[in-house]
Every structure is written in C-alpha cells, then in structure tokens.
Amino acid sequence: MTKMTYAVALDVAINAVAEGEAREKLIALKAQIEKKNSAERKPTKAQVANDAMKGEIVGWLTEAHTATEVAEQFGISNQKASALLTSLVKGGTVERTVDKRKAYFKAVA
To answer: What is the pTM of this model?
Structure first.
C-alpha cells in the first residue's frame, strides 16, 4: 500500500468528481502542491549557522571528547551538541566510540 499524500488524495478526488468547476479547482490545487514539493530551497539561517559550527567542531576534535565537553567549549546546549555530532558522524567526518557506556567523538583523520 502506498502512502496517502495530498497529491494522491487529490488524484482520487479528481477521478471521483465529474467535469465542472470543482474538478478544475482540484487540478489547480494538485499543480500547486506538486510545484511546492519539487521546489529547490535555499538553507535557512539556522542551517547556515549550524554548518559553520560543524566546521569549527571538526577542527577542534583533534582528540576524543564527549558531547558535554563540546557543548561547554562552544557555549551551546548538550542537545544541540549531540545533534550536530550525530550529523557529523552520519556524514563520516567524525567517528564515535563508546568506552564504559560513554560516547566519545573524534575527527576522522
């Protein structure tokens, strides 16, 4: 079973409605939704700031540190540090190791 998106729901509605003004409106609405979903978007201010901070974090992680140490170093919350580090790990620029149930992060050489 496919996911019921607005575009799929509008297809069903368009097929169910006979010709007329309602059908034309549904077709126009579907075109608007498809245009919105396919649009190239520029990054938000927060995404640009996070990318800059990620670069600084990678530069600082020459040796293994915890997320708490990263948060203290850069003056951010533990949650934000953890999210940025997780993103860096998924990107392959930082490696994560666990020692005695504590996660350490270090830049990949």
So the answer is: 0.64
